[in-house]
Write a structure and sequence with these properties.
Length: 79
């Protein structure tokens, strides 16, 4: 699964994207557990960042498929 990182999540991950080996559908919490295991620097992001699949934010209860492209988007503020 391709995972993209933006803003603070890019800094925490140390890269702009990664390939995460997930072989079955997972919940958002299972996704975060696998991602943090691979990139521990993202642990602080798990509580505040949103996940998007194919450019659409995930909703509570959505299942993430191994073929999905996921973006980790930290909180943003406007002005």
């Amino acid at each position: 699964m391709k995972v993209l990182f933006f803003a603070q999540s890019r800094e925490a991950a140390g890269c702009g994207q990664c390939l995460l080996k997930i072989e079955k559908p997972v919940t958002e919490s299972e996704f975060w557990a696998a991602l943090i295991e691979a990139l521990p620097g993202l642990a602080a992001q798990a509580k505040s960042a949103r996940l998007a699949r194919q450019e659409t934010y995930l909703e509570p209860g959505d299942v993430i498929q191994p073929t999905d492209e996921i973006a980790v988007i930290p909180p943003v503020s406007g002005g």
